[in-house]
Amino acid sequence: MINATKKWIFIKASSLVFLPLMTWFIISLVSIYDKEYVDVISFFSTQPAKFLTSLLMVVAFFYSSLSISEIFEDYIHHEKTKNVATKTLYVIAIIIPLITIIIIFNLTI
Amino acid sequence: MENNNPLSPHIQIYSWNISSLISISHRITGVINIIALTVVCLWIASLLLGESNYEYIKFFLQSIFGKFVILSLVWSFTFQILSEIRHLFWDFGYGFELKTSKISGLLVILGSFIFTTLIYLFNRQIL
Fold this sequence. Notes:
With 109 residues, chain A is an all-alpha fold. Chain A has helices at residues 3-32, 37-45, 49-75, 79-104.
């Protein structure tokens, strides 16, 4: 299987997980975004929000980084610039969810 | 190794239609959404600063501008979800006919506004 096919399968598989998680998150976000500190921290401290938010961050950044790398593929002409931009994107897509998960699992009321 | 893949022509050379509008919007909202999710991560991280510092963030989120930002993000996420569902149908071989493609494109645009309104109003207990 060629790399482009693998990438397409990863994008589609992650989008199938991403869609229900994102739907859950936007409904939850609208419910809590302007609430008191204690209410917001209670939301992220309890299951299943803790697990679902962590999973969303991993899947969303994975899916988005693969999708955006396709935009780089289409519009960045300079090969080295494209490689640096893509690798930077992949590093960011690992670091941000990782830090967020650590934070979520350390939140206490 | 030299990559000889052809590059996409610039979007300005195409005449606009519903499919191109959805296609470019799908890409733009995709980029906006990853930035928005990064901001959401920062928002979660801000909870570590304690209740007194969180007051500033709460003040912003309770302002008219804060509500506008949240509503815009909900639209952007909703658009991305509906547009991705359209792409998934295509991946399974459905909806390629020109008429069907135009209708599904319109449904994505209209649906994104309708679902954004419903999600916001239901969750704010206005409906």
